[in-house]
């Protein structure tokens, strides 16, 4: 629990800014210890018992996470927008006996708590204090369970230890030059690594300030970025796209480069960053987004450099403490310009899938975690070609990167968003197909085919196109390729 232990170095500094209220590290330690003692009740140690909690982006989220850890439990954050059946699945799968929430979600969760005989705790109540000691927590203890998206089967609980989390944070703090002078806003869901580790935990490890914005509001985000206080910002590509649109339509293309010079780092992740979005953001703000690669099971694995070239369309090199290799279908390690599956080793790699020993065993090969993502290396920089299951299309004997075609299409002035998918086909195996949200003028498919042929000579071009007003997305704002396939 190094992130908690380090807080004593910054007792009087602001740790969390939430709802316009500043909370110091001293307050965060005190309040989390009070809740930890209340969680223990009559026991001395939760002994790695899973404890579920549903809280929005606010101060008590951090208090609750730290309290669970200090009481010896495993933190199980629930997504505030998930349907009750999904919440119930996580509670049943983890076997959580305690459910923590606040006034906002209390009535929503009470029926589930009653049905499952859970101990329901409301952090907005003021009678949580109990006089009991706190256990000693070793680094090898299980600390958190985050759930995968479950695109091909039911979601799996990814278990990380305190040691895993310590190394995930430390790797990013070193690579991205975090310091106690930093101030970051957190606008991301807090049931994923991006919001929990990359933003909140890295800030608190460093003695910096993490400011929670409870609601998604592009106008408020721009206001915060231009305020002169925020100097680090992280988001998913969809958010950058929406901020660009807001700048065009509501800020009336206001010159902002001079007003954003105080920001030292802007990061994009959780989905591939389209090159046109990266270029447009740079032209507006003067900032070259730092793109990185990670997943629930490994934290972050690759990153463009903080100092040095941030290469468009690439996710950089392995982060400190992370070892990566690319392996083809025959198990042969690949060199430059040859695609292969990303496999990862290091202390950042997760412990196991919760109660799924066979799934855990199957996803490792000689100690290497098999990510299922395909990449290649170009002059030392890794480039993600896509998820083996949805982004690598096998058509006519070729392996085609959907992401590569999407990046080219997005350069077309009349393509606002697009998704390339493989549709089962008797002749080709999979037919390369394209779903498009057009701009003001809808291009025809013949024009788009010529556009692609000019820029990707000899490459497989989509054979069928459909136009839609919207593409189906998941909770993180990523396009759901499996849902797009259903549109054809």
Rg is 23 Å
- CATH hierarchy, class of the largest domain: Alpha Beta
Number of structural domains: 3
Strand content: 25-35%
For the largest beta-sheet, the strand count, sense and barrel status come to: 5 strands, mixed
How many helices does DSSP assign? 14
CATH topology of the largest domain: Rossmann fold
Give the uncertain stretches in residue-range form: none
CATH-defined architecture of the largest domain: 3-Layer(aba) Sandwich
Instruction: Indicate the mean pLDDT.
Output: 92
By helix and strand content, what is the structural category?
alpha/beta
Strand arrangement in the largest pleated sheet: 11-12-13-14-15
Name the shape in a single word: globular
| Helix fraction bin | 25-40%
Query: Using DSSP, what is the number of strands?
Result: 26
Please provide a written account of the structure.
The chain is an alpha/beta fold and 488 residues long. The protein has three domains: 136 residues, Rossmann fold, CATH 3.40.50; 205 residues, Rossmann fold (3-Layer(aba) Sandwich), CATH 3.40.50.12780; 94 residues, 2-Layer Sandwich (GMP Synthetase, Chain A, domain 3). It is 30% helix and 27% strand. The protein is built from 14 helices and 26 strands. The strands form seven sheets. It has a five-stranded mixed sheet with strand order 11-12-13-14-15. Strands 16, 17, 19, 20 and 21 form a five-stranded antiparallel sheet that branches. Strand 20 and strand 21 form a beta hairpin. Helix 6 crosses helix 7. The N and C termini lie far apart (49 Å). The mean pLDDT is 92.
